[in-house]
C-alpha cells in the first residue's frame, strides 16, 4: 500500500479554522480516516471529489461554536464594573452625603456651564456676519480736554468722502450710514414706529444678510427699503410685501425690495428693523452733504479687500483728518485733541468698542464672570474632595483589605477615580437638567438669549472634557491619598489620620469661605452703589411725566393748540416742549464768557432750548431767582442755569470778587457765542438744582436753559389726581386729532430714568445669584463635614457627657473649629473684597463709601450661616443619649 | 414515552452504536449506515447526531486510541447508556406491537 496521500490541504486548513478547538482532534481525525477508507475503496479521485462534501457537513453551528472557557478571562471592564458597583453601594449607603456631594457638584457645574454659554455668547458677538473677519468700523481716536482718551464712532461727512476718493483701493466696501433712529413706517393704513438705518447700497452684501425675499442688490434703487421679517409681518401681515409702497416718516417714499431675517440677538445690528438707501435720506436732508469737519454724526463701515490687514490700513489713514484741519480757521481745539482715524475690527466692537478707550469694563466683566464661574466650580470640587477625604477613615479598612488581598496601588487609584467619575457623571446629568430649567430665568437676568446647544457636537465634547477634568480634579486627592495607606497600620487600627488629613481639609474650607465672603461683600457693595445712585436727588419730579418725541415736522407750530387742547382734557397738569428729553442732553456747546472772561466748559456744557412752562412741567426746584414767565417778553434773552453752571461761573470769577452765591448770580449777564450762531448776551433769571440727565453715577453737566423754538420733545405732566390708565386714552385722542400722520408713542420719564440703572442692576442680580450659590455650596460642604465630625466623635461626646459636660459645652466644642476657620477666611476675604470693590467703584464719579460695617456685616452673616449649619449637627450630637452612643460598636 | 425526543436518523445512529459497541465512532457508524442503506452518509451528519444523543443522555463517550490513517488523532468512542438502551427498547416494542396487529393479507407488497 503506497503511503497515504493526504486530502486537499486548504480544506483541512478551513476546517481547522472553522471547527471549535475542543472538537478539532476528533473531527479532523474522522474525516481523514474516512478519506483513507474511501480512497482504498474508490480510488483517490473519487475520494477527493467526495471530500469537500464531508467537509461541508461540518459547517454547522454545533461544530463551530466555541466552548465557553471554564476559567473566565477577567478583562478591564469586569474590574471597572466592580468599582462602579462598590461606588454605587457607597453612594446609596450614605444617602445624605451623596445628595450633598452630587447636588453641590451639579449646582457648581450648572453655574460653570451657564457662564460658559454666556462667555461664548459674548465672544461670538457679530459672528453672524460671514465677512466677520474683514469688516471694521472707522473711528476717530483722540484725547479729550480732560486728558482721557476717546474713540468716537461718529464721524464728519468729509472724512467719508475722503476715504472714498483717495483710499478706495484698499476696501471692498466703504459704507456711510446714519445713526440708528426711530422712524415712522406707513403702509396703507398701518403705521409703525421702528428703528432703522439709512446706509449705502453695499450693506446687505457686506453684512451677508439672510434674504428671505429679494436680493442683496435691494438697496441700489434710491427709493427702496429692506424690511426685517418681523417688520414685514407687522406691516403687511401674511401678504407678499415685495414691491409694496412704504412711507418713511412723512417725506420719504420707498418700495419694498427685500425682506431679511431679523438680526440675531448677539449682533451689533440687532434691533435694526429696516435698512434704506443713504441717498434717500440725503435727498430730504440736503444739509448732510454740506457739513464740514466740525460736525460728527455719521458712521462709516468698511470691508477690506482680501490680503490686506487692518493695521496696515489704519496706519495709512491715520492722519487724514489732522492733515485736512491743521490749517483750518478756528479748528485749533480740534487739532489739539490730535484726532487719528483708525479701523476697529468687527470682532472688537462689542467688548472694546467703548467711547473711553481706557474703560475696559465689558472685557473685565467677561473675565470677572468667568472667574466667578471657575470659582464656584472650584468650590463644588473642594466639597467633593473634602467629603471624600473625610470619609477616608471609613474606607480605610476597605483599602487595607483590598491591599492585603493583592490590590496594586494603581488599581486603587483606578477605583477611586471611577467612583469620582460616577459621581461627576451623575452630577453632569443633574446639571444639564438644572440648566435646562434655569436658562429662561438666567436669560431674563442677564438680558441674553442663550440657548442650550443640545445638537452641537462641540458642546457634548466640551461636556465630556468637563466631566473628565472635574472628575480628575475632584477625585485626585482621595485617589492618591487613600491609596497610600499601609494595610498593616490600617488593619491594626493604628492609622492616625487626624492631623495629616485635617490640615488640607481646613485649608479647603478656608479657601471656600474666602470666596464666599468676598462674593457676599461684593454683592452688598454693588447693591449699596445702586441704592446710593437711586437716592440721588434728581432735580425734577419724574412721577407722572410723559415724554413724546417729535419724530416729524408735523409737530411744528402746533405748540399753543396742543397745549390748550391737552389742558382742556382735564387730565394734564401742564405741557411744555424742549430740545432734549429729561433723560438726555442733545445739544452741547461752549463759548460762554462773562465780563470779557471766557468760561471753559470742561467737556462742553448743555445748552437746551425749552418752552416757557418747562419748569412747571418737570418740577424744577429753584435755588434762586425765578422761572421763565410769559408776561415778560425780555425772557427770550434770559438764561436759567443749573447749580453746576453756577459753580462754573463763580469758579471762573473767584480771582476778581471772591466767592459768589447762587443768589448773587441772578441778574448777571453772560455772553454766549458758539461758533455756529451769533453772539448774544443773556441775563440769568434763575438757578435750579442739577437735573440728573445723563448717568446717575457721574457728576451733573453744567447746563443753561433758554427759550427758543427748537424743540424735539413734548413733556406732559399728568394731573396727579388722575391715574395714567385714565389719562392716556384722552391724551392719545388729542394727538390723533391734531397730528394724525404720526402714531402716538410715549415714554414715562421714571421708566426712562430707571433704565439708566439696568446695567448695574444686572451686575447686582448676577452677583447676588452667584454669591448665593457660592454660600449654598460652601454650606453644603460644611454641613457634610460637621455631620461627619459629629459622627466620628460620637464616643468622645458620650464619655464627656457621662463625665458631666453640658450641651452648651459640647456645642461649643464641636462648633469652635469651624468658627475659627470662617474667621480666618473672613480676614483673608476683607482685603481682597476691599481691593476689588474700591477698584470697581473708581469708575463711578458719584459713588458710595466703602464703610467698615459692610465688611463687618458680611463677615457676621457668613459666621451666622456657619453657626446655623454646624449647630444643626453639633446640637444633635450633643443631645444624644450617652448610653446609646457608648454602646455603638 | 416522548417519541419526539428521538429523530429517525438519531434512532438509526443509536442502533448502530449499539450494534458496533464497543468500537462505535462516527467513521465506522457512517460506513455501516452507508452499507446498510445504500445512501451516502457523511461523518459530519453522524457526528452531529451523536453529539445530540449524548446531550440527551442516551450515549456516553470517551476518547479512544489514535491510528496512522487519522493522522495520529484520537477518535471519540460512543457507548449506549442505560437510558439509551431503554429508549431503544421502548421504540422497538412500539414498533413490534404495531407490526403484530397488521392483518396478514393487507401486508403491503413491494418489489
TrEMBL record, chain A:
Record's keyword annotation contains Ribonucleoprotein: no
Top-level taxon of origin: Bacteria
Subcellular localization: Cell membrane
Domain MacB-like periplasmic core: start-end pairs: 98-319
InterPro entries for this protein: ABC3_permease_C, MacB_PCD, Macrolide_Exporter_MacB, Permease_put_prefix
GO molecular-function term, one example from the UniProt record: transmembrane transporter activity
Keyword Transmembrane helix: yes
Membrane-crossing residue ranges in chain numbering: 99-119, 365-387, 416-437, 457-482, 507-527, 766-790, 802-830, 850-870
GO cellular component labels: plasma membrane
PANTHER family assigned to the protein according to its UniProt record, in alphabetical order: ABC-TYPE MACROLIDE FAMILY EXPORT SYSTEM PERMEASE COMPONENT 2, MEMBRANE COMPONENT OF TRANSPORTER-RELATED
Protein name (Swiss-Prot/TrEMBL): ABC transporter permease
Organism field: Fibrisoma montanum
UniProtKB/TrEMBL annotation, chain B:
Superkingdom, taxonomy of origin: Bacteria
Gene3D superfamilies: Winged helix-like DNA-binding domain superfamily/Winged helix DNA-binding domain
One Pfam family it belongs to: PadR
SUPFAM superfamilies on file: Winged helix' DNA-binding domain
Transcription regulator PadR N-terminal domain span: 23-89
Protein name stated in the entry: PadR family transcriptional regulator
Amino acid at each position: 500500500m503506497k503511503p497515504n496521500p493526504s486530502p486537499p490541504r486548504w480544506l483541512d486548513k478551513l476546517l481547522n479554522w472553522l471547527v471549535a478547538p475542543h472538537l478539532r482532534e476528533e473531527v479532523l481525525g474522522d474525516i481523514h480516516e474516512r478519506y483513507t477508507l474511501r480512497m482504498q475503496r474508490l480510488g483517490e479521485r473519487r475520494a477527493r471529489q467526495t471530500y469537500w462534501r464531508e467537509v461541508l457537513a461540518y459547517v454547522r453551528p454545533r461544530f463551530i461554536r466555541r466552548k465557553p472557557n471554564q476559567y473566565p478571562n477577567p478583562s478591564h471592564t469586569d474590574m471597572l464594573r466592580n468599582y462602579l458597583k462598590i461606588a454605587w453601594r457607597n453612594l446609596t449607603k450614605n444617602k445624605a452625603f451623596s445628595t450633598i456631594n452630587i447636588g453641590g457638584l451639579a449646582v457648581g457645574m450648572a453655574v460653570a456651564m451657564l457662564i460658559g454659554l454666556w462667555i461664548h455668547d459674548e465672544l461670538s458677538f457679530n459672528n453672524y456676519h460671514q465677512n466677520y473677519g474683514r469688516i471694521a468700523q472707522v473711528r476717530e481716536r483722540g484725547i479729550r480736554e480732560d486728558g482721557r482718551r476717546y474713540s468716537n464712532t461718529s464721524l464728519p461727512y468729509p472724512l467719508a468722502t475722503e476715504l472714498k476718493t483717495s483710499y478706495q483701493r484698499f476696501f471692498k466696501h466703504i459704507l456711510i450710514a446714519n445713526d440708528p433712529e426711530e422712524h415712522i413706517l406707513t403702509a396703507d393704513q398701518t403705521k409703525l414706529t421702528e428703528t432703522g438705518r439709512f446706509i449705502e447700497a453695499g450693506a446687505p452684501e457686506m453684512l451677508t444678510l439672510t434674504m428671505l425675499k429679494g436680493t442683496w442688490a435691494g438697496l441700489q434703487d434710491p427709493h427702496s427699503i429692506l424690511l426685517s421679517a418681523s417688520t414685514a409681518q407687522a406691516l403687511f401681515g401674511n401678504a407678499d410685501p415685495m414691491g409694496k409702497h412704504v412711507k418713511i416718516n412723512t417725506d420719504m417714499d420707498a418700495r419694498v425690495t427685500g425682506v431679511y431675517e431679523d438680526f440675531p440677538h448677539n449682533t451689533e445690528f440687532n434691533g435694526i428693523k429696516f435698512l434704506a438707501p443713504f441717498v434717500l435720506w440725503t435727498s430730504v436732508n440736503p444739509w448732510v452733504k454740506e457739513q464740514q469737519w466740525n460736525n460728527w454724526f455719521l458712521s462709516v463701515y468698511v470691508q477690506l479687500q482680501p490680503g490686506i490687514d487692518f493695521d496696515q490700513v489704519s496706519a495709512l489713514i491715520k492722519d487724514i483728518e489732522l492733515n485736512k484741519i491743521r490749517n483750518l480757521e478756528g479748528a485749533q481745539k480740534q487739532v489739539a485733541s490730535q484726532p487719528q482715524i483708525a479701523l476697529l475690527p468687527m470682532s472688537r466692537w462689542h467688548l472694546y468698542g467703548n467711547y473711553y478707550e481706557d474703560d475696559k469694563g465689558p472685557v473685565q466683566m467677561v473675565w470677572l464672570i468667568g472667574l466667578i464661574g471657575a470659582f464656584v466650580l472650584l468650590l463644588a470640587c473642594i466639597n467633593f474632595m473634602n467629603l471624600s477625604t473625610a470619609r477616608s477613615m471609613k474606607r480605610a479598612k476597605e483599602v487595607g483589605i483590598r491591599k492585603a488581598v493583592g490590590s496594586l496601588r494603581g488599581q486603587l487609584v483606578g477605583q477611586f477615580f471611577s467612583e469620582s467619575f460616577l459621581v461627576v457623571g451623575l452630577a453632569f446629568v443633574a446639571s444639564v437638567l438644572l440648566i435646562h430649567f434655569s436658562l429662561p430665568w438666567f436669560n431674563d437676568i442677564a438680558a441674553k438669549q442663550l440657548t442650550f446647544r443640545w445638537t452641537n457636537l462641540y458642546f457634548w465634547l466640551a461636556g465630556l472634557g468637563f466631566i473628565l477634568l472635574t472628575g480628575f480634579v475632584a477625585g485626585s486627592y482621595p485617589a492618591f491619598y487613600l491609596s497610600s495607606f499601609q494595610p498593616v497600620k490600617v488593619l491594626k487600627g493604628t492609622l492616625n489620620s487626624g492631623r495629616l488629613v485635617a490640615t488640607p481639609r481646613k485649608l479647603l474650607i478656608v479657601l471656600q469661605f474666602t470666596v464666599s465672603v468676598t462674593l457676599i461683600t461684593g454683592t452688598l457693595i454693588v447693591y449699596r452703589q445702586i441704592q446710593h445712585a437711586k437716592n440721588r436727588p434728581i432735580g425734577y419730579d419724574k412721577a407722572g411725566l410723559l415724554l413724546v418725541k417729535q419724530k416729524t415736522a408735523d409737530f411744528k407750530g402746533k405748540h399753543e393748540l396742543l397745549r390748550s387742547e391737552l389742558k382742556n382734557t382735564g387730565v394734564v397738569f401742564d405741557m411744555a416742549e424742549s430740545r432734549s428729553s429729561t433723560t438726555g442732553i442733545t445739544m452741547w456747546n461752549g463759548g460762554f464768557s462773562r465780563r470779557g472772561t471766557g468760561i471753559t466748559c470742561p467737556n462742553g456744557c448743555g445748552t437746551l432750548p425749552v418752552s416757557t412752562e418747562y419748569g412747571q412741567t418737570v418740577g424744577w426746584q429753584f435755588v434762586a431767582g425765578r422761572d421763565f414767565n410769559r408776561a415778560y417778553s425780555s425772557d427770550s434773552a434770559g438764561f436759567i442755569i443749573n447749580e453746576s453752571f453756577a459753580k462754573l461761573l463763580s469758579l471762573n470769577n473767584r480771582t476778581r470778587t471772591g466767592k459768589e452765591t447762587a443768589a448773587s448770580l441772578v441778574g448777571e449777564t453772560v455772553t454766549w457765542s458758539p461758533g455756529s450762531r451769533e453772539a448774544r448776551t443773556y441775563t440769568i433769571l434763575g438757578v435750579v438744582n442739577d437735573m440728573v440727565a445723563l448717568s446717575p453715577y457721574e457728576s451733573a453737566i453744567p447746563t443753561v436753559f433758554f427759550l427758543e423754538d427748537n424743540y424735539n420733545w413734548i413733556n406732559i405732566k399728568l394731573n396727579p389726581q388722575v391715574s395714567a390708565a385714565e389719562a392716556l386714552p384722552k391724551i392719545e385722542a388729542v394727538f390723533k386729532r391734531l397730528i394724525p400722520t404720526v402714531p402716538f408713542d410715549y415714554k414715562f420719564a421714571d421708566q426712562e430714568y430707571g433704565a439708566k440703572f439696568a446695567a448695574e442692576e444686572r451686575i447686582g442680580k448676577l452677583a447676588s445669584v452667584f454669591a448665593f450659590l457660592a454660600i449654598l455650596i460652601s454650606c453644603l460642604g460644611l454641613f457634610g463635614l460637621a455631620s461627619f465630625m459629629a459622627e466620628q466623635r460620637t464616643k468622645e461626646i458620650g464619655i464627656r457627657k457621662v463625665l458631666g459636660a453640658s450641651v452648651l459645652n459640647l456645642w461649643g466644642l464641636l462648633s469652635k473649629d469651624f468658627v475659627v476657620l470662617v474667621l480666618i477666611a473672613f480676614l483673608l476675604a476683607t482685603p481682597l473684597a476691599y481691593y476689588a470693590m474700591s477698584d470697581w467703584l473708581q469708575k463711578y464719579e458719584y459713588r458710595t463709601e466703602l464703610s467698615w460695617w459692610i465688611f463687618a456685616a458680611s463677615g457676621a452673616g457668613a459666621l451666622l450661616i456657619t453657626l446655623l449649619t454646624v449647630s444643626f449637627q453639633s446640637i444633635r450630637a450633643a443631645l444624644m443619649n450617652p448610653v446609646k452612643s457608648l454602646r455603638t460598636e | 414515552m416522548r417519541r419526539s425526543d428521538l429523530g429517525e436518523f438519531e434512532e438509526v445512529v443509536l442502533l448502530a452504536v449499539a450494534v458496533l459497541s464497543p468500537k462505535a465512532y462516527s467513521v465506522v457508524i457512517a460506513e455501516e449506515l452507508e452499507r446498510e442503506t445504500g445512501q451516502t452518509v457523511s461523518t459530519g451528519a453522524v457526528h452531529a447526531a451523536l453529539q445530540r444523543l449524548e446531550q440527551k443522555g442516551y450515549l456516553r463517550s470517551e476518547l479512544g486510541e489514535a491510528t496512522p490513517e487519522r493522522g495520529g488523532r484520537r477518535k471519540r468512542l460512543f457507548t449506549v447508556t442505560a437510558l439509551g438502551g431503554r429508549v431503544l427498547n421502548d421504540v422497538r416494542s412500539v414498533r413490534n406491537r404495531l407490526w403484530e396487529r397488521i392483518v396478514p393479507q393487507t401486508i403491503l407488497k413491494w418489489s
